[in-house]
Amino acid sequence: MPVYNPPLRDMQFVMHEVLQVTETFREMPAHAEIDVDTINAVLEEAGKFASQVIFPLNISGDTEGCKLDPKTHEVTTPKGFKEAYKQYIEGGWAALSSDPEYGGQGLPLAVNQCLYEMMNSANQAWTMYPGLTHGAYASLHTHGTDEQKATYLAKMISGEWTGTMCLTEPHCGTDLGLMRTKAEPQPDGTYKLTGNKIFISAGEHDMADNIVHLVLARLPDAPPGIKGISLFVVPKFLVNKDGSLGERNGIYCGGLEHKMGIHGNATCQMVLDGAVGTMVGQPNKGMQGMFVMMNAARLGVGNQSLGLTEVAYQNALAYAKDRIQMRSLSGVKAKDKPADPIIVHPDVRRMLLTAKAYAEGGRALALFCAVLLEKVHSHPDEKVRKDSDEMLSLLTPISKAFLTDNGYLAATECQQVFGGHGYIKEWGMEQFVRDARINMIYEGTNTIQSLDLLGRKVLGNNGATLRKFGKLVGRLVEEEGVNEKMAEFINPVAYLGEQMTKFTTEIGFKALQNPDEAGAAAVPYLRVAGHLVFGYFWALMAREALKKIAEGSTDPFYTAKLQTARFYFAKLFPETATLMRTARAGAAVLMNTDEALA
Prior knowledge:
alpha+beta
């Protein structure tokens, strides 16, 4: 059976020693009083909830799946899910980082980030039910009317009601301009929505009293394409003036998708049959409100793969220490046993260290993004808010795509550590692989994220934001460039940072001549950018570890951190050279292939 131990020590290291989050929080009145002990205490309890309450439901939930009653359109979640959700609400976890004005606890988003990483490690399918609510809450909090906020936010913050995002249609995935769902205005100011949505995670379930759907649809006179989309809030049960639940609304689950993974989450085909909704934001400008939810979801999906990377690594490590097979190539290591534990073999260590390096690098990036998002929402200085928003915009597609690519790779490598047992359900590894695969697809495929990064976030402003990140790298290089102990960590990042400008300019120039060049280069380009970001954070973490050791610490944590950093820069970071060569190979070998693909 799988195991999971919350990585509290590493979370504390990143937050308190590398990012020094409490120093940043002091600049924000809402969090000026938060201290290290409070954060650590909350995370310890969060880890207990994740490991003791929802982790034991992961395999059983995957085995049982969700069940739809075709007569009532009600969905029953796996055994124990509903009871675990009740504990989640009673523990106050739903309200952790939400606005106190509506009943939230108002803790920093970085704390919520750690909670969700642990819950994703423990049970991604279960975590998606409350997880989607955060994005819907954020969208309504930013773009909702006062009446909508009064009606929905407190219930969503408490966890009594959950939320979804309803975008995709059978003929319409990423290209939302093809959407057909209609919204007819009514005399009372509401709208009646008619259409079909698919792939709606947590679209119907029995865990909460109401489900608040955020739905994209077209008004009768809407212009064609993406500029004619409006956003509506459509509850499962209509809400009376006094806040009580009214009659069943005309939105229901018409079918459950039969999926490769995340079986414990209800992925629904949603039918809107005259469903009553109210508009969020302005007519034909629904993407503004939905992008709030979509960007939150993209960061959240990266966090899902971070969680799976961590739990897959933990289980593979435990297995590698216990499983005996063959003898070490350099001589017998376990003289009292008929064979050595497989952890003595170099390639087993490569697989384990790959997962460990991607988990710890991903954790640093995810927490850095959470701090940026906190600055966007809470910092009193407008310039800081603007700069943070710009940097977060650059890092969001990297966080989504790089972390999910790495997560699937790491889960597969960890499955490989188990050999044949990794293919067997009882060990849990094949579920981690199946669950990780969806994260590369939904909330905008990783190719879409790559196009967004290269086209919008980099070339769209002539590399201005990328240069701002480059300044962070340059400052670190300037500070540590003469430190011989840091050379093995600094030099690779400095070299790639210098190459990045030329590489980006070259791709941008070719794209001006032929837009397909951007499409051909985007995926390897994002991965190069991902390594630049990871390299920066790994250099920061190595610096902190060296500092603690120089101060006399004998904590093996710091030695382990340096060893993992050395592995990352020696074995993973160098793929950037191949990626840049691949990106520079151009579009012709892809597009001049009509006969090959006939």
